[in-house]
Design a protein that fits this description.
globular, Spore Coat Polysaccharide Biosynthesis Protein SpsA, Chain A, alpha/beta, 7-stranded mixed β-sheet, 204 residues
Length: 204
């Protein structure tokens, strides 16, 4: 086995997402553009995110919000836990149990994520305990860890502008070294959509 293949087998990317079901995805966007168009955007982002995962130098998997079958995607597995933090932490615990040394968890809301960005995340993760991809709304679009860090997932005010600063502060208080990726924007609203021409065009 060559070194690149060996390194790939130590790395896991988990796409943490929702199945494309009308009325269940992109609810903030749906309130502005309707359920049908929100579903189209979600499906496009999901496909782009999965292609980025497949192009990176890592094993790729999908953690779905519910059981089922989604055409064009692998079966993956269902997220485990009651809160968002519990579900995210369980992915890192699962990855460690499977023998992965470096695990990156990403959502499917950020069109800026590319295979190259994911490779950069893993490169940084080889030298840091944690890697974070800050989102312009105060959250993050990606988090990577060498080992599960429960402190980074507990009592975080999810879906608020405090997610990023609180997570950074937790890293510091837990004495975890961390690196950051370039900031990027999710597509959660019509205003977000207007900044991404490729995705705006698909609902016109």
């Amino acid at each position: 086995m060559d070194s690149s293949a060996s390194l790939k087998n130590e790395r896991l990317i988990v796409l943490f997402t929702r199945r494309p079901v009308r009325g269940k995805v992109k609810t903030r966007l749906a309130a502005e553009v309707g359920d049908d168009q929100a579903l189209v955007v979600h499906a496009a982002l999901l496909a782009a995110s999965w292609q980025a995962c497949l192009g990176a130098g890592a094993i790729a998997d999908i953690a779905w919000d519910s059981a089922g079958c989604t055409e064009g995607f692998p079966e993956g597995h269902v997220q485990v836990g009651h809160t968002l933090g519990e579900r995210m932490l369980s992915e890192f615990i699962r990855a460690e149990a499977l023998g992965f040394r470096y695990t990156v968890l990403m959502g499917s809301d950020c069109p800026a994520i590319s295979s190259g960005l994911l490779d950069l995340a893993f490169s940084l993760l080889q030298r840091h305990d944690v890697v974070l991809g800050p989102a312009h709304d105060g959250g993050y679009y990606l988090i990577g860890m060498q080992r599960p860090q429960a402190a980074l997932m507990a009592d975080i005010p999810w879906s608020t502008p405090h997610v990023w600063p609180d997570t950074v502060e937790r890293c510091r208080s837990e004495r975890l070294s961390f690196a950051t990726l370039p900031p990027a924007s999710d597509i959660d609203t019509a205003a977000d959509l207007s900044r991404w021409e490729t995705f705006r065009e698909i609902i016109q």
